[in-house]
Design a protein that fits this description.
single chain; alpha+beta; 16 strands; elongated; binds glyoxylic acid; binds manganese (II) ion
Length: about 425
């Protein structure tokens, strides 16, 4: 059957809530923490295992995988026109250290469910349909976040990404080589290869849809994000013998900096997002004055000019608070706010209306791989609610019916746009 409104409806109908949920539960076992969440950080054996599981499902359906030089995996269901660029959707399988079972996983499994539903409905498309698994979206083990899509899009040089190390000194190059050996995908994919469209389904990771009783969020854009790494150097000294006046305490200096940053970035409207998520004290011994502190800053705002103005003050502020210590501030990521294609947003909105699902426009507070695709291809995202708005937390939960509802929207739009 070729694509028509009847065949699109057949694919939407073939989306299976039970299968989609079971696949989430299968992946939840890989890297399970024992407290309901997962620790499946990028390019670990657990990340490789999750990718292998999806590849095994793909193999049983006859879908073909390919991989690029940063380990992004593309799973293709062919179309009838071998020259046509694919309709692509996906997200990521890596997680935070205390991650949940839906962040990223949903976008990959929703895309995969669309490919399966198309096969179950016996529908052929002009364009290929693809599900993509981006490498290291989370940025928890290797910084920055959205590494795989940034390299794919040319926003981050491959060599820079490969040379990045984790806290144990393992490089992306080493961890990627081990992962690639396990995946053993012979077919290679070029960066920035053509796509007809890129779509990403995701849990909202915030409370808006749930509290306003909407099933679908049509994402208008993603707020801007800047990451900094702050290294404060003092001098190690004996805790019992060294008077305060001659100490160069890197911890005390870093605390001064964080306190001053909190004041600088205080926003009574509560729109600015400021997080110090990593704070490492060296040598981390109770009776040695700390000689070195490394901390990270995650700063976000929906308006580019506010983000620029605030972020540009960080280095000077840290210097002013360093006193007898020295400080090096490095910006590791600068990602301006992104707006998604109005035509794609309209397709998603029409589909939600046609399927009689309560929907609203929403700005993404979290960042996503779709932001880099938006520079290259017509792109868009849809959100489904997550309980209590809780995410980056083992308690993260999304209802099976909502996951399936979002997948049906994805199916309708992917199938519509897979037709010439
Ligand atoms: C992605 O996980 C983000 O930090 O927004
Ligand atoms: Mn995510
Ligand atoms: Mn995340």
């Amino acid at each position: 059957m070729a694509t028509s409104s009847a065949t699109i409806a057949a694919v939407v109908k073939a989306v299976r809530e039970d299968r989609l949920w079971q696949r989430h539960m299968d992946l939840a076992n890989i890297g399970a923490t024992g407290r309901g969440g997962v620790n499946r950080q990028a390019l670990t054996p657990e990340d490789a295992e999750a990718r292998l599981r999806v590849l095994a499902w793909a193999a049983t359906r006859g879908f073909s995988p390919s991989v690029d030089a940063i380990g992004n995996v593309f799973i293709r269901r062919p179309g009838t026109d071998p020259t046509a660029s694919p309709v692509v959707a996906g997200s990521h399988l890596d997680t935070q250290p205390t991650g949940g079972n839906f962040d990223g996983v949903y976008g990959v499994l929703a895309a995969f469910e669309v490919l399966e539903a198309a096969s179950d409905a016996g529908v052929t498309t002009d364009r290929p349909l693809e599900a993509v698994v981006w490498t290291n979206e989370e940025g928890a083990r290797f910084q920055p976040t959205t590494m795989g899509s940034a390299v794919f899009a040319g926003a981050l040089p491959l060599e820079t990404a490969l040379a990045t190390t984790d806290t144990a000194g393992v490089s992306v190059a080493q961890a990627l080589a081990e992962t690639m050996q396990r995946l053993a995908i012979p077919q290679r994919r070029a960066f920035r290869c053509p796509m007809a469209v890129y779509l990403e389904a995701h849990i909202e990771q915030g409370p808006l849809l749930e509290t306003t009783h909407h099933t679908i969020g049509i994402v208008s854009g993603i707020q801007g994000l800047r990451w900094f790494r702050v290294e404060v150097t003092g001098e190690e000294a004996h805790a019992g013998t060294t008077p305060r006046r001659i100490r160069k305490d890197a911890f005390v200096a870093a605390v001064r900096m964080v306190t001053a940053l909190q004041e600088l970035l205080y926003d009574s409207a509560d729109t600015v997002r400021f997080t110090v998520g990593r704070f490492e004290v060296t040598p981390n011994s109770p009776n040695t004055v700390p000689g070195r502190v490394l901390f990270t800053i995650d700063l976000r705002h929906p308006q580019a000019e506010v983000l620029s103005r605030l972020g540009d003050q960080i280095e000077a502020l840290c210097r002013a608070q360093a006193h007898d210590c020295s400080v090096v501030v490095t910006e590791t990521l600068s990602s301006p706010p992104v707006e998604f294609d109005p035509a794609i947003r309209a397709w998603l909105t029409q589909s939600a209306a046609r399927q009689a699902l309560a929907h609203m426009d929403i700005v993404s507070g979290a960042t996503h791989d779709a932001k880099y695709m938006a520079d290259l291809y017509p792109s868009g995202m849809l959100f489904v609610p997550c309980r209590g708005g809780i995410s980056h937390n083992e308690a993260e939960y999304a209802a099976p019916a909502d996951l399936a509802a979002g997948t049906r929207i994805l199916a309708e739009v992917m199938l519509t746009l897979a037709h010439h």
